[in-house]
Amino acid sequence: MLRKGHDMMNPVQTSIPQADGSDRYVIIEPIIEKDGQRGLRSTGVYKIYKDALDDETHLFTEPEEFAEVNDELPDEQNPDYLGKFIFESGCLRQFEGQVLSLAEQAYLAVFIEAYQEPDL
Predict the structure, then answer these.
(1) Where does residue 112 rank: exposed (0-12), middle (13-18), buried (19+ CB within 10 A)?
(2) Per residue in 51-81, pLDDT tens?
(3) How far apart are CA 120 and CA 113, in angstroms?
(4) Residues 6 or more apart from 81 whose CB is under 8 A from it?
(5) Rounded to the nearest 5 degrees, what angle is found at the Cα of 110, between the Cα atoms of 26 and 50?
(6) Bridge partners for 50 per DSSP
(7) Quick one: how far is CA 75 from the chain centroid?
(8) d(Cα 109, Cα 87) in Å, to the nearest integer?
């Protein structure tokens, strides 16, 4: 069974083609939450971060966000943070951020909507 992007559960690396022929490498991090006894579910929020080449993301079964100690840099202070997409009922509601161009936002929105992740 495949799930569409709005159910993305693991970080995904991708690149956004640029007008000059280069690529902007990014990580799409879905924000997930516990859903009672049923496990984890997507919140419809996807944070976008700059990615270093050949830096592998990791898969998880329990998200690190639920750890007791959270010493991560807040997004507003993180130089790698590019913004976030907010989807409602599978449709893009808004993008919050000032770094990505409209074309880059559109490219990533389509990528997230079309992405299919196999069940593990």
Answers:
(1) buried
(2) 976 544 444 444 444 444 556 788 888 889 9
(3) 20
(4) 47, 48, 49, 75, 97
(5) 10
(6) 26
(7) 13
(8) 9
Alpha helix stretches (DSSP H) within 1-120: 102-114
The strand pair at 23-34 and 40-50 is best described as: antiparallel
Q: What is the DSSP letter of 74?
A: P
Rounded-to-integer distance, Cα 8 and Cα 30, Å = 6
Residue with tokens 């992740």: 117
In the numeric block, which tokens belong to residue 114?
């079309």
Q: What predicted TM-score, i.e. pTM, was given to this entire model?
A: 0.76
**Residue 87, helix vs strand vs coil:** strand
DSSP-assigned states of every residue in 52-82: -TT------SS-GGGSS---PPPGGG-TTEE
Pairing status of strand 40-50 against strand 12-17: unpaired
